Amino acid sequence: MANSFSKIRSTFFGGVLVVSFLVVITVGTLIAVVCRIEGFSGLTWNEWTAIRFTFFQSFVSAAISVLLAIPVSRAFFRQDFIGRNILITLLGAPFILPVIVAILGLILVFGSKGILSQLMGFSAFSIYGVHGVILAHVFFNLPLATRLLLQGWNSISSEQFRLGQSLSFSPLNFFMHLELPMLCRVVPGVFLIIFLICTTSFAVALTLGGGPKATTVELAIYQAFRFDFNLSRVAILSIIQLLMCGLIAVLSIWIAFPAHYEGGLDRVRPIATTGKILDFIFIACAAIFLILPLAMILIRGSGSLFLLPQSVMFSALRSILVSLVATGLATVMTLYLASLIVYYSKAFEIFGYLPIAASPLVLGTGLYIIFYNFIDPGKIALPSAIVINAIMCIPFSLRIITPAFKDLENSFGRLADSLNLIGWSRFRWLIWPRLKGPIGFSAGLSAALSMGDLGVIVLFSNPNHSTLPMEIYRLMTAYRMDDAFGAALLLLVLSISLFWIFDKGGRKNAIT
Amino acid sequence: MKILLSIFFALVTVSVACAKPTLTVYAPDYFTSEWGPGPKIKQEFEKICDCDLLYISGDLMPRLMIEGKRTKADVVIGLNTDVTFKARKLGIFEAHKQDTSSLSIPIKWNDKVFLPFDWSHTAFIYDNTKLKNPPQSFDELLNSKDDIKIIIQDPRTSISGLALVLWVKSIYGSKSEEAFTKLASKVLTVTKGWSESYGMFTQGEADMVLSYTTSPAYHIIAENDKSKSAAIFSEGHYFFTELAAMTNSSKEPELAKEFMSFILSETFQKMIPTGNWSFPSNLERDKLPDEFINLPMPQKVLFYTEEDAQKYRDIVIQEWLTAFQK
User: Fold this and answer.
1) How far apart are CA A447 and CA A324, in angstroms?
2) In what helix (H) or strand (E) does residue B219 lie, and over which residues does it extend?
3) Sign of the C-alpha dihedral, residues A373, A374, A377, A382?
4) What mean pLDDT is reported for chain A?
5) 3-state secondary structure string, A223-283?
6) Using CA atoms, how far apart are residues B312 and B326, in angstroms rounded to an integer?
7) Alpha carbon of residue A339 to chain centroid
8) Mean pLDDT of B28-57
9) Residue-range domains of chain A with CATH
10) Domains in chain B, start-ordered, CATH in brackets?
11) Regions of chain A with pLDDT less than 50
12) B105 at interface of A, judged by CB pairs closer than 8 A
C-alpha cells in the first residue's frame, strides 16, 4: 500500500519497536545461553525419540482439536439458547488452568479411579498412554479452537447468509460458498497456534503419557537445564524446537487462503433451522467433556476455599495485579504488531509466534544470565513475570485481533483513506469501535493466561512476592492437598471472572 | 502506557536500606514458603545474630552454576548428596568447621564442606486401609502377582526420582536393568515432580507412591490420619539427606559460620520434624515428637557417596529409560 506510510507513521515505529522487543527477548535470551556454551555435540538417540514424539503428538492433538472445533463452533454460531454466552465463557476455562490442576482434574474424571471408570465400570480402560496425552491436549485446546473458529463464523456477515437464502442455497451450497472459504482462511492459523502450544508441553505429556515414552523436547530441555546443567544441550534443543515451530509456522501462513468478505450492516444473523438436533448434540458433548473436570475441581476445592490462609489471598491479589498489567502490555503490543501485519506485510506474523516457540525455560535462563549481574533477581520477580506473561500472550491475541483487523481495513479502509482519517483519529473512530469485541476477547484471554502461568518464575522467585499458582505448588509440596485444591478453585474462579469481564466489556456496545 | 511504566519501575525499585548486616541464604522454594521451615528459622536466627536473614528462593543448582564464583549467596541450604559432586567442583564453598562426629543420622559423616540438616529415606507410601498386605521387600514388590499400581517421579527431572533409580542400583547392582523392567509393569505413570505424584496418590489414583519414610508423619500429626504408611523393605532403603554449605565469597563469613552452627543447634533441629517433615540431623531420639519415634524404620540403610552417585547416575538413568520405553 503506497499511501499507508503517512496513514500510520506512529504505528510503524511502534510496530517495529514491538518486533525488536520480541526478537531480543526470545532470540536474545537464546544467544545469552549460547554464549555460555563450552562445546557442542550431536543429538543422542533419546533426543531424536523426543523430537519425533513431540512432532507426532503436537500434530495429532492440533488436528483433532481443530476437527472437533469445527462442528462445535458451527453449532454455537447457528444456535441461540439460554446460557449460550455463559457456556462459551466456561468453555474457555480449561485453557487457562495451571498444568498441575488440570492434570488432577482430568484424572478425577478419566483416571483409573475417576468417575468415568466408576460409572462405566470398565477398569480396563487406562488414560495413560499416547491417547492420554492427546486427550489432555484436546481438553486444553478444543475450547481455544472453538472460540477462534466462532470468531471466523461471526466474520461472515448476515447479508451474505440472506443473499444465500434468497438464492435458495442448499446447506451444501452454503458450506461451499460461505463456510468453506472462511475455514480455509482461519483453520491453518488455529492449527498452528495449537501445534505450537502442544510442542512446549511436558508435564502433561509425561504424566498422562504414562512415562518416558512420552518424552517431549521441552522435557529434554528441562532435564539438560536442571539436572545436567548442560547449556549446550539446552541451546541445541531449543534451536531445534524453534526450527520445528518455524517450519510449521511458515507452512501454515503460506497455506492460509486470503478469503475476503464484504462488510455488512451488522444485522442480526439468521438462526439456523436445519440440523438443530445435531448442533445440540455437538454442544452437549463438548460441554460435558470440558466441564466435567472443572466440576470435579469445584467439588474437591469448595470445602477449603473459604478457609484459605491470608497469604494465599495476598498472592491472589498479586496475581491479579500481574495479570492486569501484563494484559495491558500485551494488548498494546499486539495492536502495534497487528497494524504492522495489516498495513505492511503478513510476514511480520512470524515474529508474533516467537514467544510460544521459545522455551520458557530458555527465556528465563537467558534473562537471568543477562540480569543477575546488575540486579537481584528476587527484586524483579514480579516485573519479569509481567513482561514474560505479556509476551507469552501475544501469539494468542494476535490470532484473535489480526483477522478482524484485516476485515475491517478491507471493508472500510478506502472510505477512511478518502476521509483522510489517519493516526489517532483512525484508531478512535474506526478501529476501536469495530475491534472492541476481539480486543475484549484477547484481553480476557491474556488476563486469564497471566493468572495461571508460572513457568518463568522458577529462577526469579521471591519468597515474599509469590503469585497464586506458586502458592498452589507450595501448598502441594507441603502436603496440603486440600488447601491446594481450594487455592486452585480460587484461581479458576478469578481467571474466569477476569476473562468474563474483559470479554463482556468488549462485546458491550460493540459493533461486531 | 505511562502508568504501566511507572508501576513497572515502582516494582523494580522497591529496595530495602538498613543498617544491620544481611546474611543471604539460597534455598529451595518449598523451604522458604510459609509452610516450610524457612520463616521460623529466619525468625529464630535473627533473634540471636543481630542481622537480617534474606532468603533467595528458586532452583539452587542452575542458579549456582550460572553465578559460579560471583554468587551472592553466603549460605546455600537444601542441596543433596546426589548433586553435591557438581556443586563441589564449582569451588565456591568453604569448610563448615562444625563437629559432625555425633550427628543423629544413620551413616558416618565426614564431609568438611556440606553439612546435613535433615534426613529421611526414599520409600513407597500406601494406604493401609486399602492395601492390606503390602510387599515386605523390593523383590516381593517386583515379583508380586497382585495388581499393585505405583506412581513414581522421573529421575531426569526430580531429585526423588533420581534417588529411586539409585536405590534400585544399590540393591540390584548389575541386574538393575532387569529390575527396572519388572518395575515398569507396576508403574501406573511417571510424573515430573513429587507434588504431582503425591497429589494423584492422595486422590486414590494409585496403590503406592514414591515418597519418603517420614511422609506418614504429616498425615498423623497434621491431619490425624493414620491410614498412610511407608512400606518397609528388607533390602534396605536409600538414605536421603539435605545439606547446607557456606560460600568462600561471602562478605559475612562470621555470620555464615554462626548460621552453620545454628543449623546444628537444638532450636533449629527441633523445627525440622514438623517444619520439613523429616528427621533432624542432630537431635537425640527422645527429643523427637512421639509420632516420629513411632514411625516404622528400615533396618538397613543404603547410600551412595557423591562420587558413586555421580558415576552411576547417567548409566542408571539410561537403564531406567530403556526399561520403561519397552
Assistant:
1) 6
2) helix B215-223
3) negative
4) 82
5) HHHHHCCCHHHHHHHHHHHHHHHHHHHHHHHHHCCCCCCCCCCCCCCCCCCCCHHHHHHHH
6) 21
7) 20
8) 91
9) 4-38+65-261+270-507 (1.10.3720.10)
10) 17-119+240-293 (3.40.190.10), 120-239+298-324 (3.40.190.10)
11) 1-6, 510-512
12) no
Residue B188 phi, psi dihedral angles, 5° rounding = -70, -50
Interface with chain B: mutation pick from A227, A371, A483, highest number of B CBs within 10 Å: A227
Q: Nearest chain A Cα to B149, which residue?
A: A112
Would you call B199 and A476 a contact, using CB atoms and an 8 Å cutoff? yes
Q: How close, in Å, is residue B72 to chain A by CA atoms?
A: 9
Amino acid occupying residue B164: L
pTM score, two decimals? 0.87
What Å distances lie between residue A7 and A27, A412, A424, A439, CA to CA?
31, 14, 10, 21
Q: What is the ipTM of this complex?
A: 0.84
Give the DSSP letter of residue A379. T
Kindly report, residue by residue over A40-77, the tens digit of the pLDDT.
667 788 888 889 999 999 999 999 999 999 999 999 98
The closest of B124, B120, B71 to B94, measured between CA atoms, is: B71
User: Would you tell me which residues 7-66 of chain B have a C-beta closer than 8 angstroms to some C-beta of chain A?
Assistant: 7-8, 11-12, 14-15, 29-30, 32-36, 38, 55-59, 61-63, 65-66
For residue B269, what pLDDT is reported? 96
Q: Do the Cβ atoms of A461 and B29 come within 8 Å? A: yes
Euclidean distance between CA atoms A310 and B40, whole angstroms: 17
Which string of b and e fits A300-335 if b means at least 16 CB within 10 Å?
bbeebbeebbeebeebbebbbebbbbbbbbbbebbb
Q: Which amino acid is at B166?
A: L
Q: How far apart are CA A59 and CA A290, in angstroms?
A: 21
Note whether B307 and B298 are within 8 A (CB). Answer: no
Average pLDDT, chain B: 90
- Selecting from A113, A372, A479 the residue whose C-beta is nearest the C-beta of B204 gives A113
> A286: distance to nearest CA of chain B, Å?
25
By DSSP bridging, strand B93-94 and strand B52-57 are unpaired
Q: Nearest CA to CA, how far is A109 from chain B (Å)?
A: 11
Nearest to A325 among B4, B61, B199 (CB): B4
pLDDT digits (tens, 9 = 90+) for A390-447: 888 898 898 888 888 888 888 887 887 888 777 777 777 878 888 888 899 899 989 9
Beta pairing, strands B150-153 & B187-191: parallel
- Residue window 125-154, chain B: list those with CB within 8 Å of chain A: 149, 154
Answer for the pair A164, A174: CB distance below 8 angstroms, yes or no.
yes
Contact call for B222 and A479, based on CB within 8 A: yes
Ramachandran area for residue B240 (φ above 0: left; ψ -120 to 50: alpha; else beta): beta
What are the respective helix, strand and coil percentages of chain B, to the nearest 5?
Answer: 45, 20, 35
Chain A residues lying within 8 Å of B4, measured CB to CB: 325, 328-329
The C-alpha cell at A19 is: 518486533
CA distance B101 to chain A (A): 31
CA pair distance A116, A295, nearest whole angstrom: 13
With contact defined as beta carbons under 8 Å apart, do A183 and A155 qualify? no
**pLDDT score at B109:** 93
